[in-house]
Amino acid sequence: KNEVEQSPQNLTAQEGEFITINCSYSVGISALHWLQQHPGGGIVSLFMLSSGKKKHGRLIATINIQEKHSSLHITASHPRDSAVYICAVPLSNDYKLSFGAGTTVTVRA
Amino acid sequence: DAGITQSPRYKITETGRQVTLMCHQTWSHSYMFWYRQDLGHGLRLIYYSAAADITDKGEVPDGYVVSRSKTENFPLTLESATRSQTSVYFCASRKQGLAKNIQYFGAGTRLSVL
Lengths: 109, 114
What we know:
B: mainly beta, globular
């Protein structure tokens, strides 16, 4: 069983391209997290959102609670955006997170 | 800089040896977590703790032991390391309260069991 599914698994883009990563989940949630992990690096929380849209720099996250779907968009992608992006949702009524398998993004100059 | 720190960052050990990975946070967060990250599996929860002296099993607890005598520390011990425990281990913490509160992750410990 996997409560969280991400797509695509891998993505390669040219610098400047618009990138979209998708996350679908099967459980009812209060909020969804997007995390970023650079190669060999730690994990950083990018967004936590429960409705609508959030924007931070060139990153935009959207969520549709009814459809149980979230997207992470990277506008004007740059090689420094190369990382693994992970979607996570809290298990119902619990403080544990269920994680997607991650999307490996490579942005070529 | 305050935050959540893990040590060591890298560790090589042999099968059968005991290994302890350390995790320390300075925020007095109630909840702390240990995850392992493996190719093809993503992050999996090993153990978690809701407060000092309160710990519980996660998804993959076998072969691991935790303790939490103080709020700020949450060590993870591999009592007899096996090759299958070669992985990257992440510690995380978060405030008490809503499940949607952000978890803050340490930099990770890369463990190789030979």
